[in-house]
Amino acid sequence: MAEADVVILGGGPGGYAAAIRSAQLGRSVVLIDEAEVGGTCLHRGCIPTKALLHAAEVADTARTAAQFGVTATFHGVDPEKLHAFKNTVVSRLHKGLSGLIDALGITVVNGCGRMTGPTTVEVDGATVTGESIVLATGSAPKVPQAIATSDRVLTSDQALELATIPQSAIILGGGVIGVEFASLWASFGVKVTIVEALPRLVPNEDAAISSYLERLFRRRRITAKTGARVTDVVSADDAVRVTLESGDELSADLLLVAVGRSPRTADLGLAEAGVDLDSGFVVTDDKLRSSVPSVYAIGDIVAGLQLAHRAFQQGIFVAEQIAGRDPDAVADIGIPRVTYCDPEIASVGLTEEAARERYGEGVETVTYDLAGNGRSQILKASGAVKLVVDPSGAVAGVHMIGRGVSELIGEAQLLYNLGVKAAEAAQLVHAHPTQNEALGEALMAVSGAPLHLHG
Ligand SMILES: Cc1cc2nc3c(=O)[nH]c(=O)nc-3n(C[C@H](O)[C@H](O)[C@H](O)COP(=O)(O)OP(=O)(O)OC[C@H]3O[C@@H](n4cnc5c(N)ncnc54)[C@H](O)[C@@H]3O)c2cc1C
Hints:
Layout: E1 2-9, H1 13-24, E2 29-33, H2 39-44, H3 46-63, H4 79-103, E3 107-110, E4 113-117, E5 120-123, E6 126-135, E7 139-141, E8 153-154, H5 156-159, E9 168-172, H6 176-187, E10 191-196, H7 207-219, E11 223-226, E12 230-235, E13 240-244, E14 249-252, E15 254-257, E16 261-263, E17 277-278, E18 281-282, E19 295-297, H8 308-322, E20 337-339, E21 345-349, H9 352-359, E22 364-369, H10 374-378, E23 384-389, E24 395-401, H11 409-417, H12 422-425, H13 436-446
Parallel strand pairs: 1-2, 1-6, 2-3, 6-19, 8-15, 9-10, 9-15, 10-11
Antiparallel strand pairs: 4-5, 5-6, 7-16, 12-13, 13-14, 17-18, 20-21, 21-24, 22-23, 23-24
Helix pairs in contact: 1-8, 3-4, 3-6
The structure holds flavin-adenine dinucleotide (FAD).
Residues 9-15, 32-35, 39-41, 44-46, 49, 112-113, 136-139, 156, 177, 264, 268, 299-300, 306-309, 311, 340 line the site of flavin-adenine dinucleotide (FAD).
C-alpha cells in the first residue's frame, strides 16, 4: 500500500502541474496514469497537432515561394517522415517531463486508477492513500451515438496517425479541432469540407472573427457548410458517405468527427465515493474542491474551456491550496484562447456581443485591418485585430485573426487581466515592424488618436 500527502489521478497537463508544484512545496506525491505522463496535450493534442501544422506551413511556403522571389517546388508530403518529425518532438518533450518528475521525487504509478473512498484510489488491486486526492483524468473525443467509427470515420486520435494523405475529407464540427485539421489537410492538398451545425465556424469566437475565417478559408478552397446537420453516415469500401438534413449528400475518403470532447469520469468510482457530477463533469466550488472535501478536480473534467494552459493553471492553483497557500484563481474569461489554423485566431475576454449584453450601449469597438501593418504585409498575413472596450475605457476583449497572431496574445491577456485602460496602453511603444503594432494601432484608434487609420 502506497501513501502520500497528495495522490493525483491522471498525468496530463493538469495532473503533472499539480504534481510538480506539490513536490516543489515539499509534499510527497503519487501520480497515477494508465498511459504516459503528458496526457492528451503532449501525446494526442496540442503538441502533435502543432507539429503537423508547422509542416503544413512549410508545405505552403514551398508552394508559394515564387511570390517572394524564391524558386522552390512542392512535391508532396512523405507521411513516414512527417510522423517521424512529430514523434521526435513529442518524445523529446516526454523525456524532459519524465526527467523533471523523477528529479522532484514524484512517485509515478502506471495503471488504471479508481476511487474507493474519500482518500483512497485503487490501482491494479493495490490501494494508494492520500490526504488529498486530485482528479485529473481529462477528456476523450465525443462521437454521436448514431455514428460508428471505422477506418474511414475517425476521431482526432486516429487522424494524427494517418499512414497516407487522403484526397478528400469531410470534417464534422467547425470548432477549434475541426478548423485546425481543415487547415492542415488543405495545406497538404486534401479537398476539405467542414459541416457545422451552428450558423458559423468557430462559434465561440467574436462573430467578426468567424466571418474573416470563413472568407479566408474560402480563399484556400476549404468549403464550410454551416447551419448544416448530418443525418446519416455510411462507411463504404471506397468512400464515406454523409447525408445532411437538407438532403445533400457528400462523399470523401475520410470523415473526421470533431464535435467536442467528453470528460473521462465514468467508471472512476466517483458517485460511490460521494463526488457529485453534472453531465459527466465534476462539480467543484471556486477552489476546485469537489463535494468530498479531500477531493479536488482540475482540467478537462471541470466544465469550461478545455485547454492545456487552463489545466496547468488549475493544477498549480490546487497544489498551492493543498500546501496551505491562498492563491488567486483565474476566471475562464481571462484565459487566452488560440486556434492554430491558417489564419490563426487568438482572443481573450468578452466578445462584442457579450460585452454589449454585460455593459449595454457604452461599449466601443475598433477593428484594425492587418492590411495596414507592415510586418503582416511581408508575411502575406490577411486578418485583423478587433478591440472591445467597456464604458470605463478598459480593454474588455481582444480578438485577432491572421498568420502569426498567436504570438500577440501575451500582451492582449495582460491588458485584459490587469484591467488596463485602452488610452493608457495606447501610449506604450510597439516595435516596428512587428505585428504587435496592429494591437498598438487598435489601442490608439479606440482612444480617439489613430495613426495609420482614418475614419
Ligand atoms: C487534437 C487536439 C488538439 C489540442 N490542441 C490544444 C492546443 O493547441 N492548446 C491547448 O491549450 N489545448 C489543446 N488541446 C486540449 C488539451 O489537450 C487538453 O485541454 C488538456 O490535455 C487537458 O489536460 P488534462 O490534464 O485535464 O487531461 P488530459 O491531458 O486528457 O490527461 C488526462 C490523463 O489521465 C489519464 N487517465 C484517465 N483516466 C485514468 C484512470 N482511470 N487511471 C489512470 N489514468 C487515467 C490519461 O491517460 C491521461 O494521461 C487539444 C486537444 C486535442 C484533442
